[in-house]
Design brief:
The chain contains 23 helices and 23 strands. The radius of gyration is 29 Å and the shape is globular. The longest helix has 20 residues, at about 300-320. By secondary structure, it is of the alpha+beta class. The N and C termini lie far apart (about 65 Å). About 35% of the residues lie in helices and about 15% in strands. α4 packs parallel to α8, α11 packs antiparallel against α12 (about 325-335) and α14 (about 400-415) runs antiparallel to α15. Strands 5-12-13-14-17 form a 5-stranded antiparallel beta sheet. Strands 10-11-18-15-16 form a 5-stranded antiparallel beta sheet. Strands 21-20-22-19-23 form a 5-stranded mixed beta sheet.
């Protein structure tokens, strides 16, 4: 209907509806506006040097709410002319204090970073509002819905929101990132319809969507509407990033987070077609991010997004302890989804049949290079470099801004700082317009304005490029560098697992201060180059050499990490700790069905040398008792290091009847009365997860405590009671028929990290034990060395 207007004193009221419905089964939307009437001119009296005028408006799809908000503004204006303005200033101060980026001695770069955050946050829900918070409806490339037909993308929501705008917001404002994802959860019903329309399962998100969440791509680009299916993988990656940064189990369990992630994985499980010739699954008829390729088979970016979606859905199903969906069976599809690779030239082709020059327009925007980041698909440094070199040459130089930020991130990964700096400057130099730092989509000043997508890509080049941040399912990694022409780079109120951190990067060091700590997720830092581990405490500065480091919580799940990630550490080999050579023996048949845990009932060891000696003595003792060498597959020291005995491939000699079907793991120490630390248990969990991820241990294995196999009659003060009572809580715990182990009663509480623990040998405080405990879990993340640096 045509708008109706009513005038009251110095403001007017407008009511109208949208001109069209989004879908056949929805109605038009109502719009209600209350606004001051702004005069055509403002006059300053000759004897007045300055004056201020206040005008505002309210808008809502509920007329009562629009009126209530406007009246509240009038009330504040009447109470004090500038009270509304002061509240506005206070709200922005609060927003800046919740997270920002600062750089030293580069005013222009500082303005550019701040303006990007300003525009993005301006379009996201406020921290507090006069009226109750309502559903958020997403961000278009040009901001909140705006633009006439065929301009500024008509206010529609694309992959731009999750892939480009979202990551920079997530790292400082996970609350706003959650609001952004809430739009996609709101759209699950329409996404399910979209999947069913193509005879697929799960959730297939539209290429363009708006108020209802339904497909809104206009007929001007039918191939975009039908073929740009990678958007579902992009949204799945954003959900993965959110949960990795927050461990928000409330969202996962009670706010449809699991159904959301599962639905996208289910779509990709149903989407591929089996190719009997290649013995792989193909995903045919898609358009990759390079929109010049309108319909191709096996877009490498799309296919990897599909694999990651399925792998993560299975990981989250494990966290939910959900076996009804049988996500394990989906892995057989994910494992065999084709990933195009040119082994002759050691590079990823964009899709099946791709060759340089097959389109005179070149590659439209970042595509294959997104495999390295943000998808973080494992590849060698040579392949990563070859992808960057190949596609930089063929990418259209007039393409969108965020492309060059992704190239910059890639070259920073490889240590090519000069090349990265050139591309970093290119990512904003011709796309940003003075005096208000307005971004345009293309270098020639055309396309969507104000282009939030470009801003998001630029912020990622600062955070993930120069900050070197990488988000993994159970830890984050930094490889920090200084932004060009600055004296420092500072992340203020960086948020990870409920902890707020100020991280400052200087030319020679990194400073970290926790301004807020989360008791459920205390953090530790593992310095990759030195192996040093430091526990983060509130308001206590940590100063590290500027080098790569990992940050993680001691909260480690029992669930195997999704494929593409790894839990595997490099154990200390027998040759390094001085063990006997393993005689020739038949290989262990894997995956084994049992994991048997032992305690050594010996003194704890807290140094590398002491643990080497302890394991040597243990082996010598077992040899005297008739064994050929150490009987276990692995030993875990009190120093939180894993020691190889017989390893993954050789059967142990630790059990009378289960050696051929089990992995035996011994933990050094005596846990009859002393509690195992949370750190020690985390190392044990990671070792078992490594075995599952590499198919040495069955994913349905049973966890057994040594005393269960002895049919012991002990019920009180039994050897290892405290370790047993902790293991009994784990999901794979198996009660063996006939065992009579003690009832644990009320489970003990692991001692706080803020207080020293008692040693197994004495009741006095041991500084050595306290130091070991404060090292915490991160030794287990030596995994990262093998995963990221041993190509």
């Amino acid at each position: 209907m045509e708008p109706t207007q009513q005038y009251k004193q110095n403001y007017r009221y407008i009511s109208a509806t949208t001109k069209e419905t989004e879908t056949a089964d929805t109605s038009v939307s109502s719009v209600f506006i209350y606004q001051h009437i702004i005069p055509s001119k403002l006059t300053l009296a000759s004897n007045v040097r300055k004056n201020s005028w206040v005008y505002f408006m309210s808008i809502d799809n509920d007329g009562r709410k629009a009126e209530a908000a406007f009246n509240e503004g009038l009330r504040l204006l009447k109470q004090q002319t500038f009270l509304l303005y002061y509240q506005h200033v206070a709200a922005w101060k609060q927003a800046w204090n919740k997270g920002r980026i600062e750089v030293g001695d580069n005013l222009q770069l500082s303005k550019l970073i701040n303006s990007c955050f300003y525009y993005l946050i301006s379009f996201l829900p406020a921290a507090s509002t006069f009226l109750p918070k309502e559903q958020f409806y997403g961000l278009s490339p040009g901001g909140l819905a705006n633009g006439a037909n065929w301009t500024d993308y008509q206010g529609h929501v694309f992959w731009d929101m999750e892939t480009w705008m979202y990551p920079g917001i997530l790292t400082f404002r996970p609350d706003l990132a959650k609001d952004m994802l809430s739009y996609r959860i709101y759209g699950m019903k329409e996404a399910a319809k979209r999947a069913k329309l193509g005879n697929y399962e799960g959730l297939r998100y539209p290429w363009e969507s708006a108020f209802t969440g339904a497909e809104q791509t206009p007929d001007i680009c039918i191939p975009c509407r039908e073929n740009q299916q990678h958007v579902t993988g992009d949204i799945a990656l954003a959900a993965r990033q959110y949960f990795s940064m927050t461990q928000d189990m409330t969202w996962l369990k009670n706010q449809s987070g699991y159904e959301f992630i599962r639905g996208m994985g289910k779509f990709w499980k149903s989407r591929p077609t089996w190719n009997p010739v290649t013995q792989q699954y193909d995903i045919n008829g898609v358009m990759p991010p390079d929109e010049h390729a309108e319909s191709v088979n096996n877009s490498v970016y799309t296919n990897i997004g599909a694999k990651l979606s399925i792998y993560y859905a299975n990981y989250v199903a494990c966290l939910m302890d959900n076996t009804e969906d049988d996500t394990e069976s989906w892995l057989a599809v994910a494992d065999k989804i084709a990933v195009p690779f040119d082994s002759k030239n050691n590079v990823h082709p964009e899709y099946d049949g791709y060759y340089d020059g097959n389109d005179d327009r070149g590659v439209k925007q970042a595509d294959v290079i997104l495999l390295g980041f943000p998808q973080m698909w494992p590849m060698s440094k040579d392949v990563r470099k070859n992808d960057l070199l190949k596609y930089e040459i063929v990418t259209n130089p007039m393409g969108p801004a965020m492309t060059w930020g992704m190239f910059s991130i890639g070259w920073l990964e490889l240590g090519e700082e000069e090349k990265a700096a050139d591309l970093f400057r290119m990512s904003y130099g011709n796309y940003n317009r003075e005096p208000f730092k307005i971004w345009t989509e293309a270098r020639a000043g055309i396309g969507a304005v104000n282009f939030l997508t470009g801003m998001g890509g630029f912020l990622q080049s600062v955070i993930f490029g120069y900050g070197g941040l990488r988000i993994h399912p159970e830890y984050i990694e930094f490889n920090p560098r200084l932004t060009p022409d600055t004296t420092f780079l500072r992340f203020v109120d960086f948020d990870y697992l409920g902890n707020s951190l100020d991280i400052e990067i200087q030319i020679g060091f990194v400073s970290i201060v926790a301004t807020k700590v989360d008791d459920e997720h205390p953090l530790v830092i593992y310095v990759i180059t030195t192996g040093d581990i430091v526990y983060i405490e509130k308001d206590k500065e940590l100063r590290l050499a500027r080098t790569a480091f990992i940050m993680a919580s001691s909260s480690v799940t029992e669930c195997p990490l999704p494929t593409g990630s790894s839990s595997c550490a490099n154990p200390i080999s027998k040759s390094l700790w001085g063990g006997k050579t393993i005689p020739t023996a038949s290989n262990l048949v894997t995956p084994v069905t049992d994991v048997i845990i032992y305690q050594t009932i010996t003194s704890s060891c807290y140094s590398y040398q002491a643990c080497n000696m302890a394991i040597q003595n243990l082996e010598t003792s077992q040899i005297k008792n008739g064994k050929t060498h150490l009987t276990y597959n692995f030993v875990i020291g009190s120093n939180l290091r894993v020691y190889e005995a017989r390893g993954w491939r050789k059967p142990g000699d630790h059990s009378n009847d289960r050696n051929g079907q089990s992995i035996g793991i011994a933990v050094i120490g005596n846990f009859t009365y002393n509690h195992p630390s949370k750190a020690l248990l985390a190392v044990l969990k990671q070792l078992i997860k490594c075995g599952m991820e590499n198919k040495y241990i069955s994913k349905s294995y049973q966890l057994i405590w040594e005393k269960q196999l002895e049919k012991s009659d002990c019920t009180v003060g039994c050897p290892g009671d405290q370790l047993y009572c902790q293991l009994k809580q784990w999901r794979h715990w198996k009660r063996v028929d006939g065992d009579s182990l003690p009832y644990c009663g009320e489970l003990f509480v692991i001692q706080s990290t803020s207080a020293p623990m008692k040693t197994p040998e004495t009741t006095s405080t041991s500084s050595n034990l306290y130091i070991s405990y404060s090292l915490f879990t991160l030794l287990v993340f030596r995994v990262i060395i093998s995963y990221f640096y041993d190509y």
